[in-house]
Specification:
Radius of gyration: 19 Å
Number of strands: 10
Order of helices and strands: EEEHEEHEHHHEHEHEEH
Number of helices: 8
CATH superfamily of the largest domain: P-loop containing nucleotide triphosphate hydrolases
Number of domains: 2
Strand content: 15-25%
Distance between the termini: 60 Å
CATH topology of the largest domain: Rossmann fold
Shape: globular
Strand order of the largest sheet: 6-7-8-3-9-10
CATH class of the largest domain: Alpha Beta
Bound molecules: adenosine-5'-triphosphate, magnesium ion
């Protein structure tokens, strides 16, 4: 039992916090007071229409872009104005799954998965290969895929391999950019379940941007909606259908109608 004098340990700071971000390109005011908090162990999905600033937001988080106003904190540390190596170091614990060009076509699957292990962590190739094969198995890919080239894999298998590459260096934050785009609905659902299963199994935190409502509901412990450069609604991913927010409703149903019409 805790000693009565013992202080309750302070809650850990959010893994990622974006405070009041503003970013304009000339007269195009993209971010207008955007606040985002990713807590340890949670999976947050950020939704928003095309051109709403999702990529700009994630680029600010990754340090690829600097907000005009506002702060980016990682594990409670202000990293807004770090550049170059310092910016990379602040994000060393991040794993990223990109929407396009997820894998290097000139590298075999295992070399893709081992990329961060070899280049960032200095692991020797034989050990990195072994770790890559184990990680491929963790995401449901057989060891026989290790020596294939990316174009030899289906879209769903490529997403699995990209997920393996993101998790191989043991990150504690995973960022997903449109993780299910380009997949058929069944494969998209399988990949969404794999993503949330992996996030929970590893106990990492995840920040995703997506247009796919089914994906958002599956992988989001929490979801947040961007409108006019700021977050206008935030709630449980499972509650997106009953948000009580007119814009979220419009987005959910607009998307659903468009999908049904295709
Ligand atoms: N480097 C840049 N220079 C000028 N304008 C930019 C730049 N990057 C983004 N923008 C503008 O910022 C706005 C938001 O772009 P962003 O790519 O963040 O949208 P998004 O929400 O990711 O859209 P999508 O869902 O289509 O990917 C757009 O109007 C875009 O033209
Ligand atoms: Mg985008």
């Amino acid at each position: 039992m805790a000693h009565p004098d013992e202080k309750t340990p302070a809650a850990p700071p959010p893994k990622i916090e974006a405070r009041e971000l503003y970013k304009s390109f000339g007269e195009n005011h993209v971010l207008r007071g955007m606040d985002i908090k990713l807590h340890a162990g949670e999976s947050l999905v950020v939704l928003g229409g095309s051109g709403s600033g999702k990529s700009v937001m994630i680029k600010c988080v990754l340090g690829l872009m600097t907000p005009d106003v506002g702060q980016i904190l990682i594990n409670g540390k202000d990293v807004t104005h770090r550049r170059g190596r310092a910016a990379l170091e602040a994000r060393a614990s991040f794993g990223m799954l990109f929407q396009h060009g997820a894998l290097f076509d000139s590298l075999r699957i295992w070399e893709n998965v081992a990329f961060g292990l070899v280049h960032a962590k200095g692991m020797k190739r034989p050990a990195a290969r072994e770790k890559a094969i184990a990680t491929l198995k963790d995401v449901g890919l057989d060891a026989s895929t290790a020596d294939l080239w990316p174009p030899e894999l289906s879209g769903g298998m490529q997403k699995r391999a990209a997920l393996a590459r993101a998790i191989a260096p043991s990150p504690d934050v995973l960022l997903f950019d449109e993780p299910t785009t380009g997949l058929d609905p069944i494969t998209a659902a399988v990949i969404s379940r794999l993503i949330i299963g992996t996030v929970k199994r590893l106990g990492v935190s995840a920040l995703s941007i997506t247009h796919d409502m089914a994906c958002a509901k599956t992988i989001g412990d929490r979801a947040a909606m961007i409108q006019n450069g700021r977050i206008v609604w935030s709630g449980r991913g499972a509650d997106l259908d009953k948000s009580g927010n007119a814009y979220v409703d419009q987005f959910v149903h607009g998307r659903a109608e468009r999908a049904a019409a295709q």
